[in-house]
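Q: Could you write out the predicted structure for this multi-component system? I'm mainly interested in how the pieces pack against one another.
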Amino acid sequence: MDSSRANRVFLFVVDNLIWVFVVVSLVVFSLISKSFFTPFNLVNILSRVAPLGLLVIGQSFTLITANFDLSSESAMGFTAMVAALLLASQKNGGLGLEWNPFVGILVMLAVGVLIGLLNGVFITRLGMNNFIMTVAMLMILRGATYAISPGKSVNFLPETFKWLGGGALFRVPLANGKMLAIPAAMFFLIFAFLVAFVVTKYTRFGRNMYAVGSNRQAAEAAGIDARRVILVVYVISGFCAALAGLLDAGRMDSATPRTGAGLIFPVQAAAVIGGISLFGGRGNLIGAFGGVLLWGILDTGLNIAKVSPFWIEVSRGALLLFAMFIDALKVSYLRRIAIRKVLSASPIGLKDPIQQLE
Amino acid sequence: MDTSQPVILEMKGISKAFPGVQALENVDLMVYGGEIHGLVGKNGAGKSTLMAILMGLHQMDSGTLEINGHHFTSMTPHEALEAGIAYVPQQVRMMDSLTVAENILAGNLPVNRLGLVDWKATYQEAQERLHKLGLELDVRERVEGLGVVEQTMLAIAKALFSNAKLIILDEPTAALSRVDIDRLFGFVRSLKKMGVAFIYISHHLEEVFEICDRVTVLRNGQLVGTYVVSELDIPRLIRFMVGEDIRDYERSSSKQDEPVLVVKGLTRRGHYEDVNLVVHKGEVVGLSGLAGSGAASLGRALFGLERRGIGEVWVNGRLFTARDPRQALDQGLAYLPQDRYRFGLVGSRPVRENITYTILHQLLNPAGLISFFKERTLVQRYINDLGVVCPSPEQRVNLLSGGNQQKVVFAKLAATRPAVLVLHEPTQGIDVRAKIDIYRIVDELARQGVAVLIISSEVRELLGVCDRILVMYNGKITAEFKAGEPVTTPENILLTIEGGNINEQKQMDPVYS
């Protein structure tokens, strides 16, 4: 009984380690720099990481089912470019159509869904490896983004389009008499994570995701259509990528051929740091939110502390490595407990206990 | 057997207890060089545990172990290998996508002066080594391209290359045709002449008579004896295996008249042929057979995990058309898989979620979200009813004991309120107390009107809980035993499972009845 309580304590701490890190990093950076723990900076962190956060939501969905979506950064860039081309005037790099912003948003979301659908169909119906499929999609979409772009960024987008990514929801007066704009992106980010959390935890679909990711054979034997679950997960990921594109293009007031490029690594890192297991079936969206926060805090904090960008990159890598280490530790620890149980509690020693656990 | 040969293995007074079971009690086993030694006993007799001790997987509680004159009081798997013990399972695991030669020389591939693999030397060396054992295989062939029997023989050869003196063959013939069995036996006999010793574990008793010199019989963790095979016959061997058996469990029938599961002329070539069976409301029917008899396949097919082939299945008077597990559950048939770790449970998720996966649609609140209140109430009820011992419903399932895990699977199935419940080896790897609990659960479900079909190789278990026991052999139902009739004895059932005919055997051996 004692050891099983120790197990539970260990697992609880490991599962919620991310919030310890978030708090510690907040405290450390506040001590290092006076300009860190200010309302302006904190609000800024949240709105800056919003596009990343949306990608992390999509990635978490796929990871929970033990699948990767490496194409999401390109999907983000592609959808942003499509929308910008439709909305911007000709002299700002657009096609000169200057469509209604709402139509533009709908089109880009539809494109995102379509990309997810393509990924999902290829992976679930044709049995293609999810890793390779999404890498292929990553390359195709990045190339396509360059191909359809005017070769440079597309700027000056309509106000309505920019509101979600760069607009302010309302302003609050600060003690020093200045006004602090509360960005819409910050609220949207929190809202999106809440929705994602509810979907994963409180719906049948969400529960099925965990089952599929944790033990696909058992899930199928329980009557869950694993292929459909995975298909839907990719569609969600595509949709989230389009939302990320909307936020990013809005914040920057432009879409460039490189929008989103290189983001996939931070996305994976933030998800894993937030406790989403690459082995599938484990982790929750609240933890992933913590991962996104930690990423933003570290980025901004190290910047404010005037750390060289090269060392920032090194620290990101180290953080990712550490998170992977914790994840691997957790998995091997669980396996060890389980194997010990199988070996000690049953007289079936021979029939390959390790196999029985998988 | 040649007693002039040195003793390779001597196990004396081996005892081993697990929580809730005395798996072995004072068991002896002695094997000579060049001997093929059969090891028989029903499931749970202690064969596996004894072999696990010999392989260093389990530590014995007491007893002595001597291999080739070396004395061991405890042994690690590594030491067992060093001492010359090798285990060849039914399904050999090798590096499938590599060639035979690479598998033989893995870790020790010859290299040329540049430090690159010398393929010519590799193939030559592998060929020579196999040739010495009298095994002719194409060493350039990939292992996945070999037949099952070749893979088994290759595994034996590999063991010998790493200096094995005693090879444990665990049900090597279960997936083999007669021709392949002859090839395997020929190979084993030729190695025997070279002085290699074998322990041969099999449920196919006629094979034991065909190839073994002596046979050791275990029953309920105890040694019945070691016998020279030429002085024995099958009915006597079965009697040794069964003994004066006391049943695990007794239940009175709750059978009602209404048929619930009706299978008519179900045939799938290579699996089963013209299967007809009826399970009534509240009835518990057992189905037993050797591996490959079709019983297991039938269970999986009913649940839609495999194709069913031609023929009809009716559930509750409606044609059963389910093609996958979801449809099967919706049409009232639930299935407990044999391999609960792979198919029955989602190990890293809590008990609560494992119980409710199949019935989440019944637990939604008006907003369409899962009602945690409804879920908790239901889960708590099943935990109480089935006596699942867990600190909380949030406990991860893979941290529970085997018996409790099985109860969780039962809870999941019972929650779907099935009309038919198909159970496949429901008590495998579970301690005695938990077994009794499982029988109680089966009994209770039957009393609630569920039609239960138990596919099991444990005859004693079936005798305890079933109203009727059907036996499958070679894809056909060959015998039916009704509870309480004088002919329904473990001996008779085992005999028919082995493919024998009760009436014939009676004539052959008048003493036997």
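A: Regarding packing and overall arrangement: Confidence is low (pLDDT under 50) at residues 345-358 of chain A.
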